[in-house]
DNA sequence: GTGAAAGCGCTAACAG
DNA sequence: CTGTTAGCGCTTTCAC
């Protein structure tokens, strides 16, 4: 592996000039820059990140923390962030932060280690924190990490964040059903163990209730079932909803696309036709939505990852400390799972 | 951020001793070690990865390269690798390598940049390459990367790799159907564009054909349809298979669980009962398999990630250069989607 | 626009 | 078992 010195030698300049030229600084004459670039290419020189980081204090590496890398939403955000970072020449170091909800002592230890060790060894210039709800203690420890942090999915005290207006999203989904004439609209929400997630389940439920109330319908607790955001959970919840003679809904609004797909499958298994007998709408913009003909509110997760990256990279240059949260885009995608209420 | 010198001062020893004590080297007296650890804790000292890397040549960071982070299999492998790495105190830097199949010039550029720049700046001690089929040119460039590489999913010239015996896995799945009395067994394979993946589609198809042949059945091209490993693709292929009067299968073996789930959905939509009218088996061990009652051959992707990590970490210490490929475990999971052939 | 030189914070011989 | 001393390879003043 050639060093900067060899490049300097070949180009006939000092190492300082090589450093400047390769970093794209303006204070290098075009001719010199060319010679340096040629020399570097000829030698196959690539800057050593360790040496560069040590000398400059910048790693050109960004950390991404998320609760899991296995659920649909997170993988999309990750893909979006990775793409954007790679295009900017940055590396991406991934941290999966186990939830401590289960009370698993190993998970607690892993989580502690992230804050006490991984985060502090200066491997990253900044952090993108996805759906990360921290304890007070963790928040305190996060303060030792001096670099910029951008949050996705909820407010992170002291950091900029991207937030989806869950209330409005839910209202939109519900109003879509209302506009089709539905009055008996059930809701599959996230169960409260997911409420660590910035009360996302709660907000989505509130949006639903607000829309109903605004339409003169009194929200009914019987019409709401909670699940775990998976297809399977949505399936089970729908079985409950459709099986209970007191509920008898003409439409279901699920707080995620996967749950909505579960609802579609459950409806089929019970012999209900979608949307003739039952309209179903979700939230997310899942790939499979098209296959299932699912009407949904798309929240463009990849864009969220890209946006977070842009914000962070911007902060890394300018260290502007504008902490105003950024509202994330969303869009109603109408497909075949919703229709006008049957006039029977 | 405290430096090693401050810790040394507080503990009343030299920086060398601090370094040794914190690195867990044996040549430090217990008493000294204790004092150093106390001092480090008191100061909140964490080693700077850049300085440590520069001085030692080891980054304590491992790269993971995969074609995508959005398909089920890859996310599981990633999760497994991350867990194992984190427990060993290593960071994980993720690289998504765009496929160049589409001929997208941007993808080509990104891919080139990975080999020419990202890989060579010494940010990682080693690499875990998942389902990475390289061009000769890329293979050549990979040689500039002097560190150990462990491959998952196929042979990587010059590196150790973990391989699933796709032939045997497919044979097992097919034999399971044969043992239930099925003779008209259709196959949904991966289309050949996925054959870059170490000919995985081809191997799985060959295992299927071998099993049939061994049972005295002549493989019939009409019984085979190709898809893209997704639920949707499996659904479409099944529609073709079940719609063609010349095919008329009593069982389908799909080369992935997602395609198998698509097959289950398609069968339902066509009014066929699973398994009464049609048995279906997949490969993978997908979470949703349980929900769909899908019989499958589990390939334990998380274990693959963990195993690859262990192998790599081992190589990092011992630099043993045993390049013998490691066979990955797999297991037939019988659920409700397969049954004895109806005796009508 | 370019060069000389002083570190960045740590590790790894080498002594003792 | 512990300290001294060179660097690791780069960036960044500070001069010129």
Brief characterization of the structure:
2 copies of one chain form a homodimer. Helices cover 44% and strands 16% of the residues of chain A.
Straight-line distance between termini of chain A: 77 Å
Given helix and strand content, the structural type of chain A is alpha/beta
**Any low-confidence stretches of chain A, pLDDT <50, length ≥5?**
none
Can you count the helices of chain A? 13
Order of helices and strands of chain A: HHHHEHEHEHEEHEHEHEHEHEHEE
Tell me the radius of gyration of chain A.
Answer: 25 Å
State which percent range the strand residues of chain A make up: 15-25%
Identify the strand order in the major beta sheet of chain A.
2-1-3-4-5-11
Largest beta-sheet characterization of chain A = 6 strands, parallel
* Assembly state: homodimer
**Could you estimate the helical fraction of the residues of chain A in percent?**
40-55%
The largest chain-to-chain contact, stated as pair and per-chain residue counts, equals: A-B, 49 and 49 residues
The coarse overall form of chain A would be elongated
What's the total count of β strands of chain A? 12
Describe this structure in words.
Two copies of one chain form a homodimer. Chain A is elongated. The relative contact order of chain A is 0.11. In chain A, the strands form two sheets. Chain A has a six-stranded parallel sheet, with helices on one face. The first copy, chain A, is built from 13 helices and twelve strands. In chain A, helix 7 links the parallel strand 3 and strand 4. Chain A is an alpha/beta fold. Helices cover 44% and strands 16% of the residues of chain A. At the A-B interface, helix 4, helix 5, strand 2, helix 6 and helix 10 of A face helix 4, helix 5, strand 2, helix 6 and helix 10 of B. The first copy, chain A, binds a DNA duplex (16 and 16 nucleotides) through helix 2 and helix 4.
């Amino acid at each position: 592996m050639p060093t900067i010195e060899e490049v300097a030698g070949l180009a006939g300049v000092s190492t300082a000039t090589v450093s400047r030229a390769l970093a794209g600084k303006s204070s290098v004459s075009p001719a010199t820059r060319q010679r340096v670039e040629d020399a570097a290419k000829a030698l196959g020189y690539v800057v050593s990140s360790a040496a560069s980081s040590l000398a400059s204090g910048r790693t050109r590496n960004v950390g991404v923390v998320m609760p899991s890398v296995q659920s649909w939403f997170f993988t999309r955000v990750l893909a979006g962030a990775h793409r954007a970072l790679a295009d900017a020449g940055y590396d991406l170091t991934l941290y999966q932060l186990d939830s401590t909800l289960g009370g698993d002592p190993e998970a607690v230890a892993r989580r502690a280690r992230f804050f006490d060790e991984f985060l502090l060894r200066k491997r990253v210039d900044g952090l993108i924190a996805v759906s990360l709800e921290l304890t007070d203690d963790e928040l305190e420890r996060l303060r030792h990490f001096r670099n910029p942090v951008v949050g996705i999915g909820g407010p992170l005290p002291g950091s900029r964040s991207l937030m989806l207006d869950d209330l409005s999203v839910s209202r939109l989904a519900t109003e879509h059903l209302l506009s089709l004439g539905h009055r008996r609209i059930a809701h599959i929400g996230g169960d409260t163990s997911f409420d660590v997630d910035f009360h996302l389940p709660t907000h989505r439920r509130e949006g639903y209730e607000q829309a109903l109330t605004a339409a003169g319908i009194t929200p009914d607790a019987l019409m709401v079932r909670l699940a775990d955001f998976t297809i399977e959970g949505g399936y089970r919840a729908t079985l409950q909803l459709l099986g209970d003679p007191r509920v008898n809904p003409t439409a279901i609004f699920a707080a995620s696309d996967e749950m909505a797909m579960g609802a579609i499958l459950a409806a089929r298994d019970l012999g209900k036709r979608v949307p003739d007998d039952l309209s179903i709408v979700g939230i997310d913009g899942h790939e499979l939505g098209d296959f299932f003909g699912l009407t949904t509110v798309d929240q463009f997760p990849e864009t969220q990852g890209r946006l977070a990256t842009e914000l962070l990279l911007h902060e890394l240059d300018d260290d502007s400390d504008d902490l105003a949260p950024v509202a994330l885009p969303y869009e109603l995608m109408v497909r075949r799972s919703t229709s006008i209420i049957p006039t029977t």
